[in-house]
UniProtKB/TrEMBL annotation:
A biological process term (GO) from this entry: purine nucleotide metabolic process
Superkingdom: Bacteria
Residue span, NAD/GMP synthase domain: 14-81
Recorded coiled-coil stretches: none
Catalytic residues as annotated in Swiss-Prot or TrEMBL: 175 (nucleophile and sulfur donor)
GO molecular function: sulfurtransferase activity
Organism in which the protein naturally occurs: Candidatus Brocadia sapporoensis
Protein name, per record: TIGR00268 family protein
Amino acid sequence: MSTEEKLRKLRNAIKKLESVVVAFSGGVDSSLVTKVCYDVLGNEALAVTARSETYPEYEYEEAKKIAKGIGISHITIDTRELGIEGFAQNPPNRCYFCKSELFGKLKILAKERGYRHVADGSNLDDVGEYRPGLDAAKELEVRSPLKESGLRKADVRELSKHLMLSNWNKPSYACMSSRFPYGNLITEEKLAIVAAAENYLRSIGLRQFRVRHHDTIARIEVMPEDIPELLQNDKREELIRKFKEIGYKYVTIDMEGYRSGSMNEVLSTV
């Protein structure tokens, strides 16, 4: 399909919703859904961002800017993920608990304000990955216009660029809880350590990365082409010093480089 045909298909899927609350994180997927929902439905679309311990402040500030640029009505709700029974213990289906709470709150909000549906930014590629949150979305009848339109990640970026969304080439992002091995307790203190470490990597110009938290060990994932840069003496020494100031005892670079969902690699062996 051409870009225009893909956009037409997405617009038609959204038009059928009539009115909608969009779960808006500020990522590329939810931004595209938010943009097209506003273009098609106008004031019958509302963007809602959930703030929590696992959602960094810089992501929230960026989400506000994107929503303002789109022009859609945008509100914020608070969620307390660490207070959800079973979440902090970090089981493999952790995301199910998080999404159940989020979508549950959005369904209530939509009903109170007279919106017919709740929508998220899941795309067709998400179906082939390990994403327990999709089960929560299905149970709560959350609509996924990108997935329903047959759009994949590459299509999302293509359409986002076509519509001149400011974040069309933003690196993929996952909530901070994905930085911890399954079964390791997630706490606010640990989240703060990871956030500080990732803020440092961002400050030195890296775009796509993760800091995986293995107790006293930081396992840094960056794109393979960025690994040599981190190994330069001055940068390497500064990185080690910064990470130890943050609270890590050992600082490592994962030689496989960045890959989405690397913590899921152990699931086939447990």
